[in-house]
Amino acid sequence: MSKDEIKDYLFGALENVIDPELGVDIVNLGLVYNAELLDEGLAKITMTLTSMGCPMGPQIVANIKQELMELPEVKDTEVDIVWNPPWSRDNMSRYAKMALGVR
To answer: Locate the MIP18 family-like domain: which residues (predicted)?
Structure first.
């Protein structure tokens, strides 16, 4: 698979990770900035949270690890939470905006 195909593959799995507070997956919320699979089977995810004090952060990270470990190519997962660029509603997909009633 190419790098883009691997990224799409990982993003597809991450769509199963639902933000417990908002009820929408983290990909459509625009929380995931990048996903790559390194040669040794390490899935490296770069993402943010809706706010710095998000109490669901540890739960979301645990759910990411659980979901990606189901993929045969993934041996381990590293989640890097970044605050720059900051998350905004503009990151959300049309689906997420409709689901949450955001214009």
So the answer is: 10-80
Where do the structural domains in the chain lie, given as residue ranges? 3-100
Class for domain 3-100, per CATH?
A: alpha beta
Q: What is the pLDDT of residue 80?
A: 97
Note the pTM of the prediction, 2 decimals.
0.93
Whether 1 has a pLDDT exceeding 90, the answer reads no
Nearest to 48, CA basis, from 66, 65, 60, 62: 60
Q: Tell me how far CA of residue 6 lies from CA of 10, 17, 20, 28, 85, in angstroms.
A: 6, 18, 26, 18, 23
**40: DSSP letter:** T
Provide the H-helix boundaries in 32-93: 57-68
